[in-house]
Structure formats: C-alpha cells, structure tokens
Design goal:
Length: 215
C-alpha cells in the first residue's frame, strides 16, 4: 500500500472495534493507543490517516472525498443514504431498531399515532410500509421519556441491551431491522485507487460474508 488511506469513523465503540479489526488484518495500530483530544491521527508509516468525527459526518467526509472510506452504523446510512458506496457489513456494533412504548400501548389500534424518534426517516418508512399514517416528533435527546410523559404514543429507537427501556418502564412491541457497523467508500476513490479495493478485500476475508444476527 503506497497511497495514504484516510478513514473516517466515530469515537467510541466503532473506533475501538475498527482498530481491533485492522490489528487482526496485520496492521500496526499502536499509534491510536494514546489519542488525548486529537481528532486526526496518522500512522508512522503514513499508510493510514484517521479522522474522528460525529457519526452523521462520516458520510459527509466520504461523500466529498475528504475520506476514502468510513466506518459507521447502518442507522446513519439509512438516514443519510446518498453519495457513497456501502461495501461491507463488518458484523460489529450489533443492535436493532425497535418500536417501544409503555405496556398499555396497542400497536394494532387504528388511531393516528405520534411517534417520537431521532430517526425520522426510519420511523416514517417503517410505518408507511405498514400502511399507517403517523405523526413524527423529532427528539434529539432521550426519547424514552416521551411515551411516559404523553408526548408520544411510542418511540422508534436503537436497542442494544434494552436496559434503558426497562429502566424507563418501556417494552419492545416491534422489531424494525438489524443494525451493524458498515464500511463505506468514496465512489471516485474506489474507481481510481486499486489499492483501496485490495484493502477492502483483505478486510472482507476477515469479517466474512455471513450476517451475524442480533439476538
């Protein structure tokens, strides 16, 4: 690999799991051990440059060619679906989109429901497919309290352990879809840099082609 590869990802679990995956692929990732407050990291051999950005911004950096590839949750890709190539399901960061509410919620009644969510596209598409007309209430903070306080009938949110739902007296009524970390690529970079495709093939050989289910 001669050309430097720029990878955009988010701080936290996705960053740690990506670094672990690259270690498994045989790359020296020790330069990522002590990050402090830095947001840009370059490997000593100049093979990699990492950009730590907010999750929705991963798609923006890849779309505009500032990053060659990005690692981000499928939830972000559903909300920001354009301008990049989705290359691999990395099978980590597993969780799911669900419809949850207080126990008295009835998903099968025919009234027009108010749905609170940080993911309006996901929520709207899901209920549209069910043939239900819903009012989407966009919430940026903790959505779990909205059914409890009567702001919404139910929520659409990401569930990993379910502990936060239980703590707020909510239960899952419907599963929407599985979520996992995905590797995305800039369209021009894939076309013009054969080394990038070779790198992606190397990662694919490690993660495999089979989807790991979320249990």
């Amino acid at each position: 690999m001669t050309n430097q590869m720029t990878i955009a990802l988010t701080k936290g679990r996705i960053e740690k799991d990506t670094v672990a995956l690259l270690k498994k692929a045989g790359f020296d990732m020790s330069f990522m051990a002590d990050k402090g407050r830095n947001l840009i990291f370059e490997s000593p051999d100049k093979k990699f440059r990492f950009l730590l950005v907010k999750a929705p911004d991963v798609t923006t950096y890849v779309r505009h060619g500032v990053a060659d590839i990005g690692v981000v949750g499928k939830d972000v890709l559903i909300e920001h679906p354009m301008g990049y190539l989705e290359m691999l399901d990395l099978n980590f960061g597993l969780c799911k989109f669900t419809v949850a509410s207080v126990p008295s919620y009835n998903p099968n009644d025919h009234k027009r429901k108010r749905i609170a969510t940080k993911y309006p596209t996901v929520a709207r598409d899901y209920f549209n497919k069910k043939g239900e007309d819903v009012e989407i209430i966009s919430i940026q903070g903790s959505v779990e309290i909205s059914p409890v306080l009567g702001l919404a009938d139910a929520i659409v949110d990401i569930v990993e352990t379910g502990n936060t739902l239980v703590a707020n007296g909510l239960v899952v009524f419907e599963d929407i879809c599985r979520i996992s970390a995905r590797l995305i690529a800039n369209k021009a970079a894939i076309k013009n840099n054969p080394e990038l495709m070779a790198f992606i093939k190397k990662i694919e050989a490690i993660v495999g082609n089979e989807e790991v289910p979320f249990k």
